[in-house]
Specification:
2 domains; 4 helices; rod-shaped; chromosome partition; centromere; kinetochore
Length: about 130
């Protein structure tokens, strides 16, 4: 009878060791999964930034198409005879920034005021 109790204790110790090994393996797998999820999170952030950039570019395409169309309207005034001598080009488009809150534009405006002749500068500051 004295053999049985130590055997059950030994069995319990072996069972607990096996449980500990399983728990350690689960801990390792959990660490790997955590690292993979962190990597996935950073990649998703990059993709999100890229998607926002792509959306911004695509949102501008309508304006680009309108601008090209506007420039091409000038070609309609030419006749076939004009194409024989030289190929007409579309109208030139000029981009003018309208926001005056842009600090770069304000610096450029300050420089342009300095470049004006004294009589013109006095006239514009009134």
């Amino acid at each position: 009878m004295s053999d049985k109790p130590p055997r059950t204790v030994q069995q319990k110790i072996e069972q607990k060791r096996a449980e500990l090994e399983y728990l350690q393996e689960i801990h390792k797998i959990t660490d790997v999964l955590t690292n993979q999820l962190d990597d996935l999170d950073s990649k998703l952030e990059v993709m999100s930034d890229g998607a926002e950039s792509a959306a911004l570019v695509l949102s501008n395409w309508q304006n680009v198409v309108k601008s090209v169309s506007l420039a091409s309207l000038g070609l309609m005034k030419y006749t076939a005879k004009d194409y024989e001598t030289q190929t007409p080009l579309p109208e030139c488009l000029v981009r003018i920034k309208l926001d005056k809150d842009d600090p770069i534009d304000n610096e450029n405006a300050d420089r342009s005021e300095l470049e004006l002749e004294p009589s013109e500068a006095d006239f514009t500051n009134e």
